[in-house]
Each structure stands twice: as C-alpha cells, then as structure tokens.
UniProtKB/TrEMBL annotation:
<dbReference type="InterPro" id="IPR020846">
    <property type="entry name" value="MFS_dom"/>
</dbReference>
<keyword id="KW-0812">Transmembrane</keyword>
<feature type="transmembrane region" description="Helical">
    <location>
        <begin position="65"/>
        <end position="91"/>
    </location>
</feature>
<feature type="transmembrane region" description="Helical">
    <location>
        <begin position="231"/>
        <end position="252"/>
    </location>
</feature>
<dbReference type="InterPro" id="IPR005828">
    <property type="entry name" value="MFS_sugar_transport-like"/>
</dbReference>
<keyword id="KW-1133">Transmembrane helix</keyword>
<dbReference type="InterPro" id="IPR045263">
    <property type="entry name" value="GLUT"/>
</dbReference>
<feature type="transmembrane region" description="Helical">
    <location>
        <begin position="450"/>
        <end position="469"/>
    </location>
</feature>
<dbReference type="Pfam" id="PF00083">
    <property type="entry name" value="Sugar_tr"/>
</dbReference>
<keyword id="KW-0472">Membrane</keyword>
<feature type="transmembrane region" description="Helical">
    <location>
        <begin position="200"/>
        <end position="219"/>
    </location>
</feature>
<dbReference type="InterPro" id="IPR005829">
    <property type="entry name" value="Sugar_transporter_CS"/>
</dbReference>
<feature type="transmembrane region" description="Helical">
    <location>
        <begin position="410"/>
        <end position="438"/>
    </location>
</feature>
<feature type="transmembrane region" description="Helical">
    <location>
        <begin position="383"/>
        <end position="404"/>
    </location>
</feature>
<dbReference type="GO" id="GO:0005886">
    <property type="term" value="C:plasma membrane"/>
</dbReference>
<feature type="transmembrane region" description="Helical">
    <location>
        <begin position="352"/>
        <end position="371"/>
    </location>
</feature>
<feature type="transmembrane region" description="Helical">
    <location>
        <begin position="317"/>
        <end position="340"/>
    </location>
</feature>
C-alpha cells in the first residue's frame, strides 16, 4: 500500500496525462460503438418522418433498413479509412524525421489512392507543422478532436435541420477519427510509460474502451438521454469530451522515446521523463532507449507495404493477428446476442433488464481495471492462457445450461451468473492483455504500420461479425458456442507454445526473443532435413 501511494504521488502528472489521453481516445470509441443501439428506434423514426415530410409518402421498410444499415456501417468504413490515414502519416513523417531532408522521389510515392492521399496531406499540414516541438501522435489527437467536434455538430443538429444525411456524414467522420485516435492513443500511452508501469498503462486504453461502453449504457437509459426528445443530444456527447482533450492535451510533453529516437534530443528526453515521472534516476529507461536507438540506427519508419514485405517482422505480425482474431472470435458477440433473451427467460422484468445489462458493462470495466493492477505481477502469457481456458470452460457450462434450461428451470438463473463470469474472465484475460502485448512486441520503426494492419483487422472483424453472426445463430442456435470454444482452446495452446513473455523486458529484448525462437525453429528444421538425408543415404548403401 505505501508503494502504491508513493507511485500515485510521484507519477501524478503521468496519471493526469493518461486520463486526458483516455477520455478523448478509446473512451470515445467504446461510447460510439454502444450508443447507436440506444438511439436506434428514435433515429429510424426520425428518418421515416423526414422522408414523409419531404416526399409525402411513407418510406418502405426495406429502404429504411438499408439507410439504417448505412448509418451503422459508415462508422466501420470511416474507421478503416482512419487507419489508412494514420499509416500514411506515420510513414510519411517518420521518414522525414529519420532520413535526410533531400529524400528521393521513390520515398515520396504512396501506395494509397489519390483521394486518401489528398485527405492525409490535408491532415498532415495541420498535424505536423515544421516546428521543433511538433509530435505526430499528439497533433493527430488534437486534429481528431476538431474532426469529432465537427462530426457531433452534424449529428446534434440533424434533427433541427431535418436532414438524416447529416447523421450519416457525422458517423463517417466519427469513424475516421476513431481509426486514427485508437492507434495514436495506444502507442502514445505506451511510449510515455516507465518500464515498471508499462503493462498497467497499456491496459488503460482497454479500461477507457470499457468505460465508454458503460457511459453509453448509463446515458442511454430512458431516465436520462435515451428518449425521443434527447437522442440527438446523446449522439453529440463525444463532442464535449473532445473539446476537453483539445484544451488540456497541449499542456503535456511529448513522449521520451519520440524525443530521443526521432529528434535525437537527449536533454529533452530526460526532461520529459522528469516531467511525467517526477524526480528520480531514470538511467535504466534511458539506456534501454539508447539500445533501441543503436539497433534502429540507419533504419527508417516503415509503411504498411514495407512491413508486410519485411520477413523479420513476420513472427510479431502472426502473433498480433492471432491475438486479434481470437479476440474477435472469443464468443463475446454471442454472449451479447443472447444476453437479452437469457435475462427474459430468467423472469426478469422488462424495466430491469437495461440496468442488468448496465451491470454487465460495469462488471467488464471493473475486471479490466483489476487486470491492469495484476498484469505486471503475473505476466501477459499467464493471463492470456488462463483467461482463454476459463472462458472456454464457462462457454461449455453455458452451452449445457441453454440446452437443458427447458427441463431444469433453475439453470436459467445459472445462465445469468455464467454471463457475468464470462465477462469477468474476458476482462481479466484477453481484453486487458492483447493491446499491451501488441504495443510491446514491435519496434518504433514498425509499430505504427503494424497498428494500422491490426486496426484494419479489427474494423473488418467488427463488420464481418455484425453481418455473419446473426445467420450463424439462425443456422446453429446455441450450438454456435462450439465454434468459439474451439477458437479459445486453440488460441490458449498456440499462445502458450509460441508467445514469449514480455513482462519487464525492453523492446530490443523482446525482439531478440522472437529472433531466438525463429532461429530455433529453423535449426530444428535443418536438423530434421539432415537426418532425412542421412537416412536416405544409408538406405541407398
């Protein structure tokens, strides 16, 4: 307890910066993903009324569902566009920091189509002015705040303007901002954290994501903003949060790793460490950064295509894709889909179900916060393997409970308890650890583009799950849980066998771990080939 209090005092400026980063980062993503469900009936009614007032006839139900699907999917489309923009920004300006100014024309060629390139160039004019104190991620977050404010003005005033198209445009702009700030927030938080708190601070991005979902469920209650008169105010809430970050973030310093590795400012790096971490001896962290600088000397910030061509990064990329795919297919979507049905069959009153669902979100938030406090003690691999195994066991019990609930009525109440237990295991395991591992296994030269690849996988996974999962439920019913049980068990085994523990290790040490594992596999294959050749030779003799 005394150690915790001393850290709380010593790193007080760091905690403030984490809060400012979080409320305008993944917190808004969690809010925007969840809030649309609470505004759904009122937005659809608004679209129908607007169409009737314009054209004098009711909107066909098929057309209404198409427009509503466009509004929902516009966020995912914008998210993928935002990821591509963040990749272009990192590659373009990372090169300008690490390479001489007289760059060749070949380095200026972008793999993106001209509209995306034009948008990115427009953004970089404001994100990265040619000043000595500029920082790419910090400026991107500030510009994102402006984009979010514009987006929420569209959704907030759509009802006054009687234009549902403004909601569509607002959701698309919110998606672009989410695609950028999810990458920038996670990387920025990881770069400003000291080694002993790195796991805890990396998990805070997931904590704020869960907090955003909980805030959306609270504000979406019919007692607050989830009403026909206030739905536009509910959708415009992110604009106020973005304004807070826009006003406060400029008062915080850049990350020490940025100042040393990209600006080569040793004094500025040490000054930023003291500003964020308080007075103390930070030679260990500084030496780790110097080692990383020596390893990356002469290298440049890679764009997405260069990372995909770089064979030495394949183990890290495969690890990241495994973690993200297992996170998408862990069964959370199935739990969310069946939650209302399970609560109804447990004879819960209709008016109480929204509050029980809110309890599920609060349970997720608390479990992720608990994960952040134990991740540096138990390690990443232990929490991942244990979390996936426990989630698989709970899904087996839930599958059994759903199949036998008609014969044994008391199993319906067990299903409610199992939902809460699944959310707890999800929060303590993969929800809190995956982002931390992703942030630790990549070097500065590949991290930004790797996060772009990961972000695209996340957004595609959200769109794919939303479209395919309802049909899987219709075909398989409760047996759809069997798919997720298999994914969880396979993921636990693969992670245990191939993921090195990253707790307490620098980026250079983790990279060496991956290289060692890769060398051992190649050596084992070479030994097997030699043994096979000797056997063939002896057979011929």
């Amino acid at each position: 307890m005394p150690g915790f209090l001393s850290d709380l005092v010593q790193y007080r400026r760091l905690w403030l910066m984490i809060v400012v980063l979080g409320i305008g980062g993944t917190h808004l993503s969690g809010f925007q993903m969840s809030v649309i469900n609470y505004a759904s009936p009122y937005v659809q009614k608004f679209i129908n009324e607007t169409w009737l007032e314009r054209y004098g006839s009711a909107l066909p139900r098929e057309t209404l569902m198409l427009l509503w699907s466009l509004i929902v999917s516009a966020y995912c489309i914008g998210g993928m566009a935002g990821c591509l923009c963040s990749g272009y920004l990192a590659a373009k300006f990372g090169k300008s920091f690490l390479q001489p100014r007289a760059a060749s024309k070949r380095n200026l060629v972008s793999p993106f189509p001209s509209p995306a390139k034009t948008l990115c160039l427009f953004m970089t004019r404001f994100c990265c002015p040619a000043s000595k104190w500029s920082c790419l991620r910090k400026k991107c977050l500030l510009l994102n705040d402006v984009v979010l404010i514009v987006a929420t003005l569209h959704t907030g005033f759509s009802r006054t303007a009687k234009a549902f198209e403004m909601i569509l445009a607002g959701r698309f702009l919110e998606g672009i901002a989410a695609g950028i700030h999810m990458n920038a927030h996670v990387q920025y938080a990881g770069e400003i954290s000291p080694k002993k708190l790195r796991g805890f601070i990396n998990v805070t991005s997931t904590v704020f994501l869960a907090l955003g979902k909980a805030v959306a469920r609270i504000l979406g209650l019919r007692d607050l903003l989830g009403t026909e008169d206030m739905w536009n105010v509910l959708l415009s809430f992110p604009g106020w949060v973005a304004l807070i970050q826009l006003l406060l973030l400029p008062f915080f310093p850049e990350s020490p790793s940025y100042l040393l590795l990209q600006k080569e400012d040793k004094a500025g790096c040490l000054k930023a460490m003291k500003q964020l971490w308080g007075e103390g001896n930070y030679h260990t962290e500084f030496d780790d950064l110097m080692k990383e600088k020596a390893l990356t000397k002469g290298t440049k910030i890679m764009n997405v295509l260069e990372v995909l061509r770089e064979r030495s990064v394949y183990p890290q990329l495969c690890t990241m894709l495994l973690l993200l795919l297992s996170l998408q297919l862990c069964g959370l979507s199935a739990i969310t889909f069946y939650t209302s049905e399970i609560f109804s069959t447990a004879n819960l009153q209709e008016s109480i179900i929204p509050y029980v669902s809110l309890g599920v979100s609060v349970c997720e938030l608390i479990s992720i916060m608990f994960c952040s406090s134990i991740i540096d003690r138990f390690g990443r691999r232990t929490l991942l393997c244990g979390g996936y195994s426990l989630m698989a066991l709970i899904l087996v019990l839930l599958e059994t409970s759903l199949l036998l609930s008609d014969q044994f009525l008391w199993l319906r109440y067990c299903s409610v308890i199992l939902i809460f237990l699944f959310i707890i295991a999800y929060g303590i395991g993969p929800a809190g650890v995956v982002i931390s591992v992703m942030n630790e296994i990549f070097t500065l030269s590949t991290r930004a583009s790797a996060f772009v690849i990961g972000g695209i996988v996340i957004w595609l996974g959200l769109a794919f799950t939303g479209m395919i999962f309802p049909f899987a439920v219709m075909l398989l019913g409760p047996f759809c849980f069997l798919i997720f049980i298999a994914v969880l068990l396979i993921s636990a085994v693969v992670i245990y066998l191939f993921l090195p523990e990253t707790k307490g290790k620098s980026t250079s040490e983790i990279t060496e771990k991956f290289k060692t594992c890769q060398f051992k596999r190649k050596r084992h294959q070479a030994v097997e080939m030699c043994a096979a050749e000797e056997k063939t030779f002896c057979t011929r003799l």
